[in-house]
Amino acid sequence: MEMPGARRVPWIAAAFLATLALASAAPPARASGDMTMEYRATAFVTGNDLRYRAYGFGLCLRDVLVKLSGEPRLDRDPRVAELMTRAGTMIKSYYYIDPKSVIPHRDDQASYDRSHYLTVTFDRKAIDKALKALGERPWRGERPTVIPAITVRGASGSYLLSSESAAAADQRASFALLASDYDLKVRVPTEAELASWGITMGWFPSPQVSSTPEQVILVGSLAFDPATPGWSGSWRMLWQGEAYAWSIQGVNYDGAFRDALKGTLRIVSGHGGPE
Known about the structure:
The protein is an alpha+beta fold.
């Protein structure tokens, strides 16, 4: 259970943070073998003092262990929960960003309880040692780009999750930002590509295209069910000759996409099938 003072970065807030970063400077391309980003994570915390700092460090540590290893099950591993209490001993550097820094402080609550982004970079040797103790190791090399081939049936209508669809704009942003938590790149296909793959709204997608080491096709159907209530997601993937299928229901679409991406991460990193 997350403490109220520290939590994962909401995707809308994360988009704002990403916009600020891009506005200030374009980051250089990652050099071959440079894994700095895999040892770095961001948490959304209350204030920039000591009250929630240690727990924020713990959240960042957990996210780093998951994305670096490619094993999403570490998210709920009790051994990781214990490591989170000692996250401060593994840190190389950290900093805060106040997304409301341009807004004047009018009272004590604005000064002390203002939400901040806490970004932590961990010591590489310490994290590699922790992963080894957990029976894991860093997942090196280039990660495949995820290409979602997803049909969406929402309360306001049905559409393909394409790069042109105006109805899918928020969901495209959500999918890409959640994928970044796992250092997975995303390329949303065009309407023309989806059509050439034989994907329509008439049935569960069955794309006439195969995954490769460079790109993985995540096939899915996302639907809103007012009876649950919530979104239900069904996912399929063919990877290295093996077929995988998994699903989730009764969540918001962020939760459905996270489930899809955690399954994808586990498969392509060599950990076996989804949870």
